[in-house]
C-alpha cells in the first residue's frame, strides 16, 4: 500500500472545475487573473456551475434568482439570534444555520438535477444572508434584506453595514470574492466531495465543508493573520515578534501552501488591494506591517504569502470585523463547493481510502471485573 501523509501529491479524482498547473490557477479554463480584473462575482458563480460564461440576459436572470433566494426562514433567523447570544464563533453559527436551512427546505433530500440547481441557488443566496444577519445581530441591529439593484458584492457590504458601499469598496470586495471562489481539491472541497459521495444531500456537503474551512491551517488562517497584526501592534515590533515566533517554531499564519511552489497567484491581487484601500482609508499601518512581515518571512523562511495573508488587511479596510473573515471566505467558496458537489454526483463513487494499521495486535480480552486497576491496562 502506498501511503502519503496528508495525501500529499495524491490524485484523488478528475475534475473540470478548476486547475492549478505550473502555479497558474484557472476556473473552467479561464485564468483567475483575468476573471479578477474583469469579471463580476456572479459571472464566476455561473461559470463554475454551468461551465460557460453567461450572456447579459443569462447574467441578469441569474442575479435576480440569487437575490430572490437570499431570504431566510424566520426559524433560521431565530437560531442565529439565539446562538449569537451564546458568544458562538460565526463559523459555528453558519454551520448551524446551513444545517437548519435543510430542515426548512422540502427539497433537501431530492436528488434530481433541477432540485439540486434550486438548492444551489438557495445555498449561495442564503449563506450571505446568514453571515450578514449575524454581523447585524452581534451589533444589536436588525438584519437587512438585499437590494435588487445591487451586485452580490455590494449587497453583502450593504447588508452588513446598512450603507451602500462606494465603488472602490465594491470593486475590491468583488475581486476578493472571485479570488476565493474555487481552488481545486483543497481540504474543504475534498470534505464536501467525500460527504456527498455517500449520496448525502447538498446541505450536508456544505455543512461538512464549512467545518473543514474553519480550521487555522485552511480558511481560518485569515482571522489569525489579523490577530497577529494586532498582537504585533506596530511596524517597529515586526522583526522582534517574528524572530520570537521562529524560535518558538510557531507557524506564521497566511504563509506557505501545499501546492504552490513559486507563490500563490492570488496574493498579488490582494496585496495591491490592501495598498489601495489603505490609501483610501488613510489607515496604512496594517498594509505596511504586512509588507514588512512578508519581507522577513520570505527572506528568512523561504515562505510566500497565500490567499489568506493580505485578505486580512483588505477586509479590515472594508470595515469587516475579524471573526467574519472566515465566514466571508465561505460565502465565496460555497460556489466552488457546489460546482464540485454537482460534479461528484454526476460521476459518483464512494470515497473510501485505506489506513495502514500501526496499532497493537493480538490483544487478549480480560473481562472488566478481572482487570487489576493498579495495572496500566492500556499498555
Ligand atoms: C486558503 C488556504 O487554505 S491557504 C493556507 C492557509 N493556512 C495558513 O496560512 C496556515 C500556515 N501555513 C501552514 O500551516 C502550511 O504552510 C500549510 C498548512 C498551508 C501547508 O501545509 P503542508 O503542505 O502540510 O506543509 P507543512 O505544514 O508540512 O510544512 C512544511 C515545512 O514548512 C514549515 N512551514 C510551512 N508553513 C509554515 C508557516 N506558515 N510558518 C512557519 N513554518 C511553516 C513547516 O513547519 C514545515 O517545516 P519542517 O519541515 O521543518 O517541519
Ligand atoms: O488549496 C488549498 O490547499 C488551500 C487554498 O489555497 C484554498 O482553498 O484556496
UniProtKB/TrEMBL annotation:
Entry-linked CDD domains: BSuCS-II_like (cd06110)
InterPro entries assigned to the protein according to its UniProt record, in alphabetical order: 2-MeCitrate/Citrate_synth_II, Citrate_synth-like_lrg_a-sub, Citrate_synth-like_sm_a-sub, Citrate_synthase, Citrate_synthase_AS, Citrate_synthase_bac-typ, Citrate_synthase_sf
Keyword terms of this UniProt record: Acyltransferase, Transferase, Tricarboxylic acid cycle
Coiled-coil blocks: none
Pathway the protein contributes to: Carbohydrate metabolism; tricarboxylic acid cycle; isocitrate from oxaloacetate: step 1/2
GO molecular function annotations of the record: citrate synthase activity
Catalytic activity: oxaloacetate + acetyl-CoA + H2O = citrate + CoA + H(+)
Acyltransferase is among the record's keywords: yes
Catalytic site positions: 257, 308
GO terms for biological process, alphabetical: carbohydrate metabolic process; tricarboxylic acid cycle
Cellular compartments per GO CC: cytosol
Family that this chain belongs to: Belongs to the citrate synthase family.
The protein's name in its UniProt record: Citrate synthase
Amino acid at each position: 500500500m502506498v501511503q502519503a501523509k496528508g495525501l500529499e501529491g495524491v490524485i484523488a479524482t478528475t475534475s473540470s472545475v478548476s486547475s492549478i498547473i505550473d502555479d497558474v490557477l484557472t476556473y473552467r479554463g479561464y485564468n483567475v487573473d483575468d476573471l479578477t480584473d474583469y469579471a463580476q462575482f456572479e459571472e464566476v458563480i455561473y461559470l463554475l456551475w454551468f461551465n460557460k460564461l453567461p450572456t447579459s440576459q443569462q447574467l441578469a436572470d441569474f442575479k435576480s434568482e440569487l437575490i430572490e433566494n437570499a431570504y431566510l426562514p424566520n426559524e433560521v433567523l431565530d437560531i442565529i439570534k439565539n446562538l449569537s447570544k451564546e458568544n458562538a464563533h460565526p463559523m459555528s453559527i453558519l454551520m448551524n444555520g446551513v444545517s437548519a436551512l435543510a430542515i426548512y427546505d422540502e427539497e433537501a433530500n431530492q436528488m434530481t438535477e433541477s432540485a439540486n440547481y434550486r438548492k444551489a441557488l438557495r445555498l449561495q443566496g442564503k449563506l450571505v444572508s446568514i453571515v450578514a444577519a449575524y454581523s447585524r445581530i452581534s451589533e444589536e441591529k436588525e438584519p437587512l434584506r438585499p437590494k435588487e439593484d445591487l451586485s452580490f458584492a455590494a449587497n453583502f457590504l450593504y447588508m452588513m453595514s446598512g450603507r451602500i458601499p462606494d465603488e472602490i469598496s465594491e470593486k475590491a470586495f468583488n475581486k476578493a470574492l472571485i479570488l476565493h471562489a474555487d481552488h481545486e481539491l483543497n481540504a474543504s472541497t475534498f470534505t464536501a466531495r467525500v460527504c456527498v459521495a455517500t449520496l448525502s444531500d447538498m446541505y450536508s456537503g456544505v455543512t461538512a465543508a464549512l467545518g473543514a474551512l474553519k480550521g487555522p491551517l485552511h480558511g481560518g488562517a485569515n482571522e489569525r493573520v489579523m490577530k497577529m497584526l494586532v498582537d504585533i501592534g506596530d511596524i517597529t515590533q515586526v522583526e522582534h515578534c517574528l524572530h520570537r515566533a521562529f524560535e518558538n517554531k510557531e507557524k506564521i499564519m497566511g504563509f506557505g501552501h501545499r501546492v504552490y511552489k513559486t507563490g500563490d497567484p492570488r496574493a498579488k491581487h490582494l496585496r495591491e488591494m490592501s495598498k489601495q484601500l489603505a490609501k483610501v482609508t488613510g489607515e496604512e499601518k496594517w498594509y505596511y506591517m504586512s509588507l514588512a512581515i512578508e519581507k522577513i518571512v520570505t527572506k528568512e523562511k523561504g515562505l510566500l504569502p497565500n490567499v489568506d495573508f493580505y485578505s486580512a488587511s483588505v477586509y479590515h479596510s472594508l470595515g469587516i470585523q475579524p471573526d467574519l473573515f472566515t465566514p466571508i471566505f465561505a460565502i465565496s467558496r460555497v460556489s466552488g463547493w457546489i460546482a464540485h458537489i454537482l460534479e461528484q454526483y454526476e460521476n459518483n463513487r464512494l470515497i473510501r481510502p485505506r489506513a495502514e494499521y500501526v496499532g497493537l495486535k493480538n490483544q487478549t480480552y480480560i473481562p472488566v471485573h478481572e482487570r487489576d486497576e493498579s495495572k496500566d491496562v492500556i499498555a
